[in-house]
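Colleagues,

For the teaching module next term, I've prepared a clean inverse folding example: a structure given as tokens, and then the sequence designed for it. I'd like students to try predicting residues themselves before seeing the answer, so please don't circulate the second half yet.
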């Protein structure tokens, strides 16, 4: 990302901070924020200083949606989380969206491991992860509803992870990394 692109992406950064704060506070991301993020991401792609082309914006939107919709279907993410990553995709295109999704997964894992360790629930986390993993490996046999119910029943920490926080951290790390490369 060059400096002009970072400046053009500043509204995305502000929206991600807002989403993270809302998600931390209420474990919800407002529709007004996610839909505005999506629409503004598409709109900015038509500008000469946009972060991506209109085609890349739509591909990024589809990528963000596709990466998270299966997790939503099994109850691992909420609808606001799906729309948030779709909005990130509309701003950054498919490649950076995939990188942010991957980095957010790692950041989220570290947060959950730290939280479980602090609450003395690390063994429970590992056991529940294995149960959910086996269910997902046998999804055709057990069905989506059973896998989803198992996932909801396997809470290893007091409060679920506010997904917007790892997305924000991942976006900041990616911006710092790509800016230092140029």
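(Answer key — instructors only)
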């Amino acid at each position: 990302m060059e400096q002009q692109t970072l400046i053009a992406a500043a509204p995305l950064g502000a929206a991600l901070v807002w989403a993270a704060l809302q998600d931390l506070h209420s474990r919800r991301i407002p529709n007004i924020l996610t839909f505005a993020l999506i629409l503004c991401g598409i709109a900015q792609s038509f500008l000469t200083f946009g972060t991506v082309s209109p085609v890349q914006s739509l591909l990024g939107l589809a990528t963000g949606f596709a990466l998270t919709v299966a997790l939503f279907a099994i109850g691992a993410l909420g609808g606001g989380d799906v729309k948030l990553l779709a909005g990130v995709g509309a701003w950054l295109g498919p490649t950076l969206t995939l990188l942010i999704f991957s980095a957010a997964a790692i950041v989220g894992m570290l947060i959950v491991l730290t939280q479980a360790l602090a609450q003395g629930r690390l063994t429970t986390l590992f056991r529940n992860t294995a149960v959910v993993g086996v269910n997902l490996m046998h999804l055709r046999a057990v069905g989506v509803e059973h896998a989803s119910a198992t996932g909801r029943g396997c809470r290893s920490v007091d409060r679920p992870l506010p997904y917007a926080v790892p997305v924000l951290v991942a976006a900041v790390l990616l911006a710092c990394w790509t800016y230092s490369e140029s």
